[in-house]
């Protein structure tokens, strides 16, 4: 035992106050902070940890620190990516200028793969625990697709969900969402044509095709078939196809919208798992959320995405040069809403699967 009055090793000055903090190694945040709170008899929940994270986020900003994510293979850019970026942005700029396309007619659409269970990949647990179980309904691999679409002025079109089944579910769905189904639960040529007829047509003046428009999407095969291009032509729509490997640089939804949308969905799923009305099978397994409940989460999450967030994503992609008047300032962005915190720090509490490329379900 250390003699009274003897100076503690560097970094361990407060060890006497928190005797569990040092057992052969230096504790890291949030481990040490959790130990300190428990040593003092205070309860520690994930909510209190998140509140502490908010204060840490402010500290990191003041000191210009950030949490860096490992660069995945999917994030590697082509060798000539700068040239491709310039060509694509020039193509969009030329068509916007030549045809006087307004921000309300510059649209980005993207497919977002989702699952019925959306658990985080990590949790707070006592060190040394060999097995970490996170409760789900067993449907974290049951997949479906949400098609998101938004305009450069911040407005959004209704989301379209594609469930993996032969027929439409016989449930009462909320307003503001288009429900579809196919055997893959993914976008194909027929679904793309239905999206154009039922969703894209809802843009301002879309029913009469009076105003020229620009549709920005990735190079998925379903977006580029002859029949799809023919239908776009009839709708007075110019197609801008993002070069392969550059969606994270040129697709507004990928740049600044999809991730906070997924964060909201995960929060809704976590609330439902904790507080929602549940039913169980005869074997005692909890049933997953209904199709209608899932759609309610989607509608709410999409409605809560601010116009300012959408506009900033288009600006970061280089599609528009400045924010149109009337959009929210940075202070109204998703990251500063109650219960949300800095995007870097959010990585501590949310999985990073949204950084992975996706080519459809098996």
From TrEMBL:
<dbReference type="InterPro" id="IPR050863">
    <property type="entry name" value="CenT-Element_Derived"/>
</dbReference>
<dbReference type="GO" id="GO:0003677">
    <property type="term" value="F:DNA binding"/>
</dbReference>
<protein>
    <recommendedName>
        <fullName>DDE-1 domain-containing protein</fullName>
    </recommendedName>
</protein>
<feature type="region of interest" description="Disordered">
    <location>
        <begin position="321"/>
        <end position="362"/>
    </location>
</feature>
<feature type="domain" description="DDE-1">
    <location>
        <begin position="143"/>
        <end position="314"/>
    </location>
</feature>
<dbReference type="GO" id="GO:0005634">
    <property type="term" value="C:nucleus"/>
</dbReference>
<feature type="compositionally biased region" description="Acidic residues">
    <location>
        <begin position="352"/>
        <end position="362"/>
    </location>
</feature>
<dbReference type="InterPro" id="IPR004875">
    <property type="entry name" value="DDE_SF_endonuclease_dom"/>
</dbReference>
<dbReference type="Pfam" id="PF03184">
    <property type="entry name" value="DDE_1"/>
</dbReference>
